[in-house]
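Example 3.2
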Amino acid sequence: MSIVRLIMHFSTREQVPVQVDDIVNYLRGVGIQDEIFFFPTTKLDIGILKGEIERLIDEAVIPPKKIANIYSAEELHTSERRLVEGKELLHLLDEEHFRVHTFEKLEKLIEQIVIEPGSKYSVPEDETLADIDRRAIIHALAVLFPFAVRAQLVTPYKAGKISLQEIVELVDLPLEHVQAVMDDRWEHAHKLMIRPQRSAGPERVAIMSDAGHQVAIASVPIGQDPKRYAEELSRRMAKSKSGT
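Structure, written as tokens:
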């Protein structure tokens, strides 16, 4: 499971706002995490840190449970808390492929359309943390503001038929980030985010018989979970074989 697949899964959604629980359910469904809990807290200084994630293993049960606790500053507005919680959720996924080939280009776009000089989201004191946080914010935006929704809004937005504030209310995200997604450069940024998956091509799954013999190999459509796709394909093949 990768952030690319998560972004692509949500990119076709046409109903907003995307709920943070929708992301949670997806991550639990593909086995990334067993339990995820959210806690507002007064212990975070939003001038430094708006959210953080704690990952635990509960070995008191069999099999052990993977648990994630996500903390967000209590004083955050609901729309910003949603973005912060989404950003922290994405830290559960492996982002290594973004450090190769695409992130240098994507980072430049991020700096242009989201992380402007003097932005409250920059963390110049620690460039490593800033780099991770910028990447997570942009990925969270791609999930919480689906590309399909942007595609429906961009023409009436440019024609002045819908305002930025109206879009903010639709997607329930902070204004400056909604403005970033509606920027003309976002389309290119989104392509850079999903390119690792498209460059690698579709994953393949093998269908095995009860006797352990390979009976079929299928390409997994981009954006779909290989395990779920294989299970559905197996059901279809079994149904076809039985003639029902």
